Amino acid sequence: MDMEYQIDIIFAQTWVDTRLRYNSSSSMRILTLNSNMVGLIWLPDTIFRNSKNADSHWITTPNQLLRIWNNGKILYTLRMTINAECQLQLHNFPMDEHSCPLVFSSYGYPRDEIVYKWRRNSVETSDQKYWRLYQFDFMGLRNTTDVLTTTAGDYVLMTVYFDLSRRMGYFTIQTYIPCILTVVLSWVSFWIKSDATPARTALGITTVLTMTTLSTVARNSLPRVSYVTAMDLFVTVCFLFVFAAMIEYAMLNYYAYIIRRAPVKTQRMAYSSFNMGRTPRPVMPMGNSLFWHDYDDNCMDECLDGKDCKSFFCCYEECKEGGWKKGRIHVNIRELDSYSRVFFPTSFLLFNIVYWVSYLYL
């Protein structure tokens, strides 16, 4: 995307040159001359200040019109195609709106020698039945007059603004809908059994690579700007959701592996006359965890030996009881998929609500 636009205009200028007055009858008040006469009279040295290049139309003859009234009034029109610069602010892309200017003034005559003025209804567009902008909606135009101060003098600056609003249809189909569907597809892994490692890993890698491709394609249609656009934000958040879904299974698989390999611990015996005859308490396996028949304060030290129970979250069944639990939360690692089935869709829905309301209505 180049920050420029192309426009085909008929540029008309009117001024009075008293040297060209003539006496005529009522039938010869206006002289219509061909383009060969243009070089024989004085013309304003008008330039388009923000144009990159401009071309006059010469087929089949030069597209110029010259009329002279008997009082010295001159009308000069020229058909041109102009490529003009338009600095786009793409923070809200693709929900952005722009005002693209077309600026012209005199090149060498300052304000005290030549003054430009707009005539009433002097800026008009052709019927929109005959032209169409495919990425933008044309919202209208407006014209202003300013003074440009330079070291060579003050110049009258005339500007026409074309107000445009971008259409979102193309980007919705090409970027937004695929990103949303890819995020939803990554949630399918939460309903796949945790021991189906090949299936869940393949699904996670596929969705991450898909989001990477979508992000690259989305950036190819934009100029290389240094700030974050609205589309960049959406694609990045979608990528984080997909990546988090893959990390969720990595955590689930890792902690499940640790629990399966947890060694069987026996209670330490205190050497005293009160427990010389006691035998270690029996341990009963249940699933992938080990449970003691009885818990007391001494046994809790044994159960939590070597485990990280100082953190806010504890992922071990033995941590469900005991004084350490005060002010902490117990998370069952086996239920991580169940938590994710609720957390991921809810947070993604909230993000979409905030995103679309912020960019479309605020």
Explain this structure.
With 362 residues, this protein is an alpha+beta fold. It has helices at 169-186, 197-220, 230-260, 297-303, 336-361, and strands at residues 4-16, 30-33, 46-48, 51-56, 64-69, 73-85, 97-106, 136-150, 153-166, 283-286, 289-292, 313-314, 329-330. Strands 1, 2, 4, 5 and 6 form a five-stranded antiparallel β-sheet that branches. A four-stranded antiparallel β-sheet has the order 3-7-9-8, with no helix packed on it. It has a two-stranded antiparallel ribbon with strand order 10-11. A hairpin with a 3-residue loop joins strand 5 (64-69) and strand 6. Helix 1 (169-186) packs antiparallel against helix 2 (197-220), helix 1 packs parallel to helix 3 (230-260) and helix 2 runs antiparallel to helix 3.
In terms of DSSP E residues, the strand content is 25-35%
* Class by alpha and beta content: alpha+beta
* Overall outline: rod-shaped
Instruction: Enumerate the spans where pLDDT stays under 50 for 5 or more consecutive residues.
Output: 264-306
Mean pLDDT metric? 82
The number of helical segments is 5
* Rg over CA atoms: 38 Å
How does the major sheet shape up?
Answer: 5 strands, antiparallel
Say how many strands there are.
13
Name the helix and strand elements from N-terminus to C-terminus, one letter apiece: EEEEEEEEEHHHEEHEEH
Kindly report how far apart the N and C termini lie: 26 Å
Q: Helical proportion?
A: 25-40%
Short description:
By secondary structure, the protein is α+β, with helices and mostly antiparallel strands. The chain is 29% helix and 27% strand.
